[in-house]
């Protein structure tokens, strides 16, 4: 799942403070993840990831945000086991 959470109605246009909090929660939940410039990629079951997305979505409200936009892109592949980085490695192998 790719998760991007954007808090609106805050005192600043910067979101780094929120992203750092998201990352701490993911570490506490022991969710495999990779931070990118445009969002965070998470690995796990669909049920686990959707619950986690809701948890992360609520965090900015707890810090006073008036509005939160959350974007979720989920790739639920069930024909074989894949892990973070496998898609990138597959493409890189094709470039050789």
Structural notes for this entry:
This protein has one domain (2-94): Alpha-Beta Plaits. Helices cover 42% and strands 23% of the residues. The protein has helices spanning 16-29, 46-62, 86-94; strands at 2-8, 33-36, 39-42, 67-73. The chain has a four-stranded antiparallel β-sheet with strand order 2-3-1-4, with helices on one face. The mean pLDDT is 94.
Give short descriptive properties of this protein:
96 residues, alpha+beta, Alpha-Beta Plaits, 3 helices, 4 strands
- Work out the helix count: 3
Specify the overall morphology. Answer: elongated
Structural class: alpha+beta
- List the uncertain runs: none
Q: Give the CATH architecture.
A: 2-Layer Sandwich
The biggest beta sheet is recorded as: 4 strands, antiparallel
Helix content: 40-55%
Oligomeric state: single chain
Q: How many β-strands, per DSSP? A: 4
Strand residue content:
15-25%
Integer-rounded radius of gyration: 15 Å
How many separate domains? Answer: 1
Termini, distance in Å? 28 Å
How do the strands line up in the largest sheet? Answer: 2-3-1-4
CATH secondary-structure class: Alpha Beta
């Amino acid at each position: 799942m790719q998760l991007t959470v954007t808090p609106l109605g805050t005192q600043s246009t910067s979101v780094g403070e929120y992203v750092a909090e998201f990352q701490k929660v993911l570490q506490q939940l022991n969710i495999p993840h990779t931070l990118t410039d445009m969002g965070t990629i998470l690995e796990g079951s669909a049920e686990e990831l959707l619950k986690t997305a809701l948890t992360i979505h609520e965090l900015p409200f707890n810090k006073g945000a008036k509005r939160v936009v959350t974007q979720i892109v989920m790739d639920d592949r069930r024909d074989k086991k894949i892990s973070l980085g496998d898609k990138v490695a597959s493409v890189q192998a094709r470039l050789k």
